[in-house]
Amino acid sequence: MKVSLLDLKPQYLALKDELDAAISRVCDSQQFILGPSVRSLEADVAGYSQCAHGIGVSSGTDALLIALMVLDIGPGDEVLTTPYTFFATAGTIARVGARPVFCDIDPSSFNLSAASVQTFIDAHCELREGRLVNRQTGGHIKALMPVHLYGQVSDMPALMALAGRYGLRVIEDAAQAIGAGDEHGRRACSYGDIGCLSFFPTKNLGAFGDAGMCVTNDAALAERLEIFRVHGSKPKYYHAFVGGNFRIDEIQAAVLGVKLPHLDDWSSSRQRNAAIYDRAFAHAGLGAWVTPPPPAPAGARHIYNQYILRAVDRDALRAHLAANDIGTEIYYPVPLHLQECFKYLGYGPGDFPESEKAALDTLALPIYPELTEPQLLFVVETIAGFYSARR
User: Fold this and answer.
1) Is the pTM of this model over 0.90?
2) Cβ distance 73 to 145 under 8 Å?
């Protein structure tokens, strides 16, 4: 039996006629830039994310970048975030000339730990004339960028309390978490100043290429985002700001408009698959060797962009699974504080032990909606077979 990490073809074939028709409508209209499909998608995704405004952009990375730009974050500013995430989180902070400042993760959720943020502030920062300042660098801690990793919402009430206490702006990196919700009934992106979504093809809601969106409940920020995504121009050819070409393509918006009504069903299928894994691992008695993701808090909505296992001898297990035609991935093998390009920040091994441990022992298993129960059970049986020789 072959079990791919991800197979997009079943989803495409099920929607092919609708997708073809949507793309044809765009081609027939010849409205390729910021047309009706974009406007419709923006309204629908904003509402889905419990926000008032949606601004379609060219990628999830550009969503983070433009969010930083419209909040006037740049040289001399610092942004608190996690080192255990995709590169774009800290990469965009560096690109605007600001300094990423890392705090460790909660080992259970893999999300930014509010306690770690508070510990950093207590140890390294002080308030000067209402601004939080990093005593070591002299930089202004201006924003907080939590990441809702793997489809689970961060502890936003605790993080928002910190933001309010110290006057920080909040950018939610929800690239992996569209539709995820916490136990308070709040969705990813609904807490901060700006929420950032990715529609990369492998995401739960994936385009036919790069695409993303910023969502917000602040009308003034929404207007700035719209201006900045067209080179800072309003009206056309008049530039009060230096923005960029961050527009979402009309064709991508049309594709996503077809897919969005199916997203809840796909998320439910991912949750079903996660439950099958959970039961199978419990039955297999592998507790000494593997740790499945803990259940989401009661009332929360984990959408399982990834199903992340902690595993003893992770790399050998991954090789064994590959030999049995089972796809896996490591998210992320090198935490950002140990990346070569961030050496200038002065971090070293041991600075963020939970992030470093997660990089060494986590493994993503196939979780996409179209997987069958026999495939999922085959994955668990193959893992059990690997560890049986070690008992």
Assistant:
1) yes
2) no
